[in-house]
Every structure is written in C-alpha cells, then in structure tokens.
Amino acid sequence: MIYLQLFLSFMKIGLFSFGGGYAMIPLIQREIENHGWLSASEFIDIIAIAEMTPGPIAVNSATFVGYKAAGILGGIVATFGVALPSLVLILIVSRYFFKFQDHPLNKMLFYGIRPVIVGLIFSAAVFVAQTAFFKEDIVFNLSYILKNFLCVINFKSMLIFAVSLICLVKFKINPILMIVISGILGVVFAF
Questions:
Q1: Most exposed: 8, 122, 135, 153, by fewest CB within 10 Å?
Q2: Does a structural domain hold residue 80?
Q3: Which residues contact 140 (CB under 8 A, 6 or more apart)?
Q4: Which ranges does the record mark as transmembrane (predicted)?
Q5: Are 26 and 123 in contact (CB under 8 A)?
Q6: pLDDT class for 9, splitting at 50, 70, 90?
Q7: Taking the CB of residue 106, how many other CB atoms lie within 10 A of it?
C-alpha cells in the first residue's frame, strides 16, 4: 500500500508542479507531512542532499523520500511517479506548443502562472529558513519568536547564511565551493 501512496503522491506532485524543483518543495513537504514519512529536519536534510547531487531536485527528493519511507523499491516508485507526468505532458505539449506559441490565450496563461511560481519558491524558502534558523523544538509562532528572539534563533546558522549570501552575491564564489565551506563551518560550529 505504501508503494501506491508514494506513486500517487509523487505523481500528483509531478502533475501539478510548475516552475521546477524549488516550486515543488511545498507540495513535497505537504505530502510528507500528510503521510508522516519524514520529520521537517529530515526533509530539509534531503533538500540539501538533493541540491548537492546531480540531477533535478524534484527527482532527487522523490528518490530520497521514497527510499527513506519504503526502501529501494520505494525510491524507484516515487521517482517514477514524479517523472511520469512530466514525460507524458512534454510529449503532448511539444507536439502543439510551437503551433500555438503566439496565441493570446497561451500568453495569458503563462502571464497568470508566473507569479504563483514565485510564490511557491518563496514558500519553499520560508519553510527551509524556519527549519534552518530556528531551534528544532520551536514551533513556528511569530509572536513567540518576537518575544523570545534571542532564545529561539540559531545564530550559527544565521552567520553561515550571511557569509554564504555575501560570498555568492558580492564575490561571485562558486556555489559548489560555498557548499563545501558552509559544510566545514557547520562541523566547526557543532564542536
């Protein structure tokens, strides 16, 4: 039964996700929470691993979640589920897209979809930030956090974030190098 749940959940994610892997993160998170397959911190770890490994983040995430929930076969089933809708849709759409690419309805459709993609990506960023910047035992409650700011903020994570952001934006450091440096900082701060 878990294999069917994994397949259907990830097929739904693959079918209704627009905007790439980061836009899929809130949908994957919701499915994981609904089925209790992983904790929030485990999911954040999977996102980090999926980001560092070659391939699309959605496929990597599906593989890791499926593996964690139901072993190797679970990983295969979840990966197939998330990839199948894209494969079918791209085969259908590619046949007609160029023919109707300049149609006003097509342009209006994409005009409406773009803002929701930004919202989905921002929602994923907020979820990751909640888990990364706040201590694990804190339920995200804005009023509680504002009242107890110094007690609930993980300042070491905030420092790694600030250093990473400055290095990536201002100094244009290679993202792979920044991941390695951040991992080393994490090890240093943990001791």
A1: 135
A2: yes
A3: 130, 134
A4: 6-25, 69-97, 109-133, 145-166, 173-190
A5: yes
A6: very high
A7: 13
